[in-house]
Amino acid sequence: MDSVQVRPMQEDDLPSAERASAVTFFEAERSTRRVSDPEAEPRSAAASKQWIDRMRFYLSVDPAGCWIAVDEEAGANRAVGFAISQNRGRLWFLATYGVLPSHQGQGIGKRLLDAALAHADGRPGIFSSSVHPGATRRYRMADFSLHPQMRMVGTVDRSTLPVVDGLQEGQADDFAWMDQLDQDLRVAAHGPDHGYMLDILRLVVCRDGARPGYAYLDDRGRASLLAAAHPETAQKLLWEALASSQGPTLVNCITTPNEWAIDVGLAARLDIGQEGYIAVRGMPVPAPYLASGHFL
Ligand SMILES: CC(C)(COP(=O)(O)OP(=O)(O)OC[C@H]1O[C@@H](n2cnc3c(N)ncnc32)[C@H](O)[C@@H]1OP(=O)(O)O)[C@@H](O)C(=O)NCCC(=O)NCCS
C-alpha cells in the first residue's frame, strides 16, 4: 500500500489515532470474544480522553518510540495504525499497537512494529499481548516469547479476608525505593510513569526494608500494577486490593511464576480464567509481579 506512510507521531495526530484505536480494539474484541464473555462495547468518551492523555504523556517522555501510519488516500493525515513504545533505561515496552481492520494483513503492522523495535535498539522488551491472531503472529515472528496469562474473576467472599498489617498509603517520597525494586524485578525503573500513575490511582506500599512492595489500585480496588521483593509481601498487597474491591473484580496479568496471586484469588473464592499473554524478549517473566497493561 504505497499511499500508507509510517512516520513519528505528533501531538496533533492524537484525535485521529484515538479514533483508529477505538475502532480497531472494538472490532478485535468482537472477533476474539468467547461466548461466555460480555458483548464488546464501543469506547466511552471518558476512556477516549484517558487514551489521549496517556498517549500525550508517552509523547512527552519518549517521542521517538511513538509511530503512526497514515493513509494519504483516505484523507490527509488520517491514522490507520499506531505503535506506541517507550524506552525506560535499559527496558523497552510496547504500550499499544493496532491497525484498522480495513487495513490489516497488508504489512502495515510489520512496518509499525519494526519502527518501534528499531527504537528499542537491542534493549530487553516486554508488553501485554492480545489474543488477536495477527498480533501473536507478528510478536512471535519478532522473537518474543508468549507466556499465557491467567486472571482471577468473581466477587470476593468477604468472610475470607485476613487481617493485613504493615501496609501504608504511598506517596512520591516512596518512588526512589520503588524504582530500585522495579530494577531488580524488570530490568529498569518505571521513573516518570510512577508520577503519572500516582495522579490517577491509589498507591499502597509496604516499606519493610528487607521485603518492600507496592501496588497501584484503581477506584474499584483492582490492582493495575503490583511489585514486591517477596511473595508474602505481594500477597498482602493483593489482599488489600481484594478488601477494597466493590462488586465483581478482576486480578489480571498472572503468569505461572506468580502463582502466589492464584493462591490468594482462590482463597477469596475467585475463579481462574485465561486471557492473553505477557510477551518478553531478552528477559525473564517478572515475579513477584503483576504487570500494568499500560506501563508494564
Ligand atoms: C496486530 C496488528 C496491529 C497487526 O497489523 P497488520 O497490519 O495486520 O500486520 P501485518 O499485515 O504486518 O502482519 C500480520 C500477520 O498476521 C496475519 N494476519 C493478520 N490478520 C490475521 C487474522 N485475523 N488471522 C490470521 N492471521 C492474520 C497476516 O497475514 C500477517 O502475516 P504474514 O505477514 O506472515 O502474511 C493488527 O492485526 C491489529 O490491529 N489487531 C487488533 C488489535 C490488537 O490485537 N493489537 C495488539 C494488541 S497487543
UniProtKB/TrEMBL annotation:
InterPro entries reported for this sequence: Acyl_CoA_acyltransferase, GNAT_dom
Pfam families: Acetyltransf_1
MF term (GO), any: acyltransferase activity, transferring groups other than amino-acyl groups
Domain N-acetyltransferase, first and last residues per copy: 4-162
Listed name of the protein: N-acetyltransferase domain-containing protein
